[in-house]
Design brief:
The chain is α+β, with helices and mostly antiparallel strands and 457 residues long. It has two domains: 185 residues, Periplasmic binding protein-like II (D-Maltodextrin-Binding Protein, domain 2); 197 residues, Periplasmic binding protein-like II (D-Maltodextrin-Binding Protein, domain 2, 3-Layer(aba) Sandwich). It has 17 helices and 13 strands. The strands form four sheets. Strands 1-3-2-4-13-7 form a six-stranded mixed sheet. A hairpin with a 2-residue loop joins strand 5 and strand 6. Helix 9 packs across helix 10 and helix 16 runs antiparallel to helix 17. The chain is globular, with a radius of gyration of 26 Å. Keywords: Signal. It holds the Pfam family SBP_bac_1. This is Carbohydrate ABC transporter substrate-binding protein, CUT1 family.
Amino acid sequence: MKKWWGLLIIAILVMTMVLTACGQSQPTKDTDGTTTGDQQKQDEPKQDESKENAGSQKAELRIFWWGSQDRHDRTIKVIEMFEEKNPDVSIQYEFSGWDGYWEKVAALAAANTLPDVFQQDYQYLAQYAKKGLLEALDPYVERGILDLSDVDESSIVGGKVDGKLYGINLGSNAPCIAYDPALFQQAGVPEPTPDWTWEDYMDAAKKIHEKLGIYADNTFPGGYFHGLKHYIRQHGQKLYSDDGTKLDYSDDKLFEEFFTMELELVKQGALPMPDESLEVKSVEDQFLVTKKAAMAEVHANQIVAMVKAANRPLKLALLPKHKDQVKEGMYVKPSQFFSVAATSKNKDKAVQFVNYFTNDIEANKVLMAERGVPISSKVREALMPLLNDAQKELFNFMEVVISNSSPIDPPDPPGHPEVDKLLKNLEAQMLYGQLTPAEAAIKFREEANKILAKSAQ
């Protein structure tokens, strides 16, 4: 009997210790949000949760995007709004500038740790989709988790690869030129019109530099990649072949003509050398914002952040037309996408966030078209009375683009990132006098075709 009582007492003591330990144990969560060059956040447990929610396990999402400080502030606010409406979801976010973003995403992909939702670009979408890194979103449309009923097909098709939807367009956009009308007036130069030509641009750039002693532009229209693509399209050709295994255009004179114009303006001091642009880390550092230049090569959606940073009126202009063009070089481009990682453990919740970002009117009143003109017709209608001058400029400019554009080319092939680096390096060699445009054209064709053929295997 004593032995039985002894065993009972021991058992009671053991149970007491276990219960005490369980009562003292609290779930821990890493809330360290510091990084080098990036910003991160992990949610603290909310203090006002109900007892029911406090005891339940939340679905955790990671979201990553690039952009200006204005974009970061707006996106963070919408994330907080989504969490309030969905207390069963906890979101960790990280953001950075464009520089370094894709290197970080590539590293995360290699480590099989891509964020649940991350910002994608048209030039990289096919590469990530074909590698199986992105979740096809068509089933979520069919199930009603992603509502595209108020979205025109032209705003959806850009997010498709091989007929499947991998990216949700966050706003209609276009490569273009932002400019300061006051600086144009001071230089005695007419403002750009929808039908201005390359000759008009060259004349304006030279006069602005001569009259004001500043750079005319931060770089040549469209930059080394989008500008060349635009120039080639105006001649009825494409940069890449449809199968992505080689360059499509056949005449190297197009390459030579484009970079010869840029080189002429650089030699005259109307455009900066590449190393001078290294100081530009964000929209706040843009030469147009700081009045070191009268123009800037941008995508249309950037006008909202640029006007805020410059604190003065800025306008948008089309990339120049070719006087003998056979088709419009301009095109309507998805500004960027939200994609869902194929490795996400909470795909329904991830798509639910993308749907909220796309369709919720209150959320879009916070975002206010900073990423581009919203794709939902209901959202656009709701925002129209609320637009400020910069946003009205964006909305109105996109109507001009639609009237002066041709269909967008297929997404860039998997080999594009290497081709892009090659072209950037060749541009620098031309501007520093190490290669002539004619020599660079031959080298670009040879090396780009090798890259594209290898990447397609």
